[in-house]
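Per reviewer request, we include the raw input and output of the structure prediction for the construct analysed in the revised manuscript.
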Amino acid sequence: MTTNQKIRYIAHHYGYESQSRQCIEELAELTQAINKFWRAKENLIKTGKARELVEAERNVAEEIADVAIMVAQLQELLGIDDERIMKIVDMKLDREIMRIREAM
């Protein structure tokens, strides 16, 4: 099975309600991982111990992957293709670049 086939299979097996709730859970876990990374970075400055920071970064990467999987499933269940998302992303990036330039 390809990655897209796996996403489609899992998404349709559980359905929108289950997977939208799971997505919210994964987003919360990513938020927590980001906060732990901030704390680990601060602790590195205080203690010089890099191990905690390395583990925190690994955890952020794993949670980003979990969120990406859930977002892909929601896209599948709602029929939102990548092209539509990328158009919106591009528009939002352009808007932010304009804000940055205007603030300079």
